[in-house]
Design brief:
The structure is a homodimer of 87-residue chains. The first copy, chain A, is built from three helices and five strands. With 87 residues, chain A is an alpha+beta fold. The radius of gyration of chain A is 13 Å and the shape is globular. Chains A, B: Homodimer, forms a heterotetramer with a Cas1 homodimer.
Chain lengths: 87, 87
């Protein structure tokens, strides 16, 4: 399954969340990730994310698509993940 | 067509971008929008966005899906757009 994950997390928790999401998905913009992931791994990611998040303040949205080809991606402006692929 | 739009824009330009995107799509998280939009309207939105953006610094990503039903959305934590629907 292919997912797009976006979060809005308070600054003090954002570093942990970034690190967690990068273990499972590709970082494509400030707080946006994408990638192929299994159901089991996605459940694991969400489970770990809930531990980091303050559910009254933070938000996490996951869009799931059964196939990547059903989504067409357009990037306008700067591609933020150039360095990320190297590091 | 159904789209998810995410941006990462420098603070001094973000208010303009937010206002622009809200004219075309539903605001669902800090810098994330979704909604049904025609090809023509999307082109118009991107054209206007380019005028606001500094392409060396800012980033805009649009995921297009021919049908909303191909995407399943999960929201964890706070739903940020509750107020937005009222305002």
């Amino acid at each position: 399954m292919y997912v797009i994950l976006v979060y809005d997390i308070e600054e003090k928790r954002v570093a942990k969340m970034l690190k967690l999401c990068r273990r499972y998905l590709n970082w494509i913009q400030n707080s946006v990730f994408e990638g192929e992931i299994t159901d089991v791994k996605l459940k694991e990611l969400i489970h770990e994310a809930r531990k980091i998040m303050d559910k009254e303040a933070d938000s996490l949205i996951v869009f799931k698509s059964r196939q990547a080809k059903w989504l067409e991606k357009m990037v306008i402006g700067k591609e933020k993940n150039e360095l990320d692929n190297i590091l």
